[in-house]
Give the backbone structure.
Amino acid sequence: MKAFRCGDVVPGCTREFTGADRAEILAQVAEHARADHHVEVDAGLVQAVEANLHDR
């Protein structure tokens, strides 16, 4: 199980995500990024998320 806290990349954001693997987390984060931060996923965002993934 993997976990990611958006606040580790976007200060002030309190959303947290859990998933079975990297791909599941990235799918959730992509939807959140578009809906709540009005940004599209790019290589930099993927890199930031991967750098902040934690085992849960």
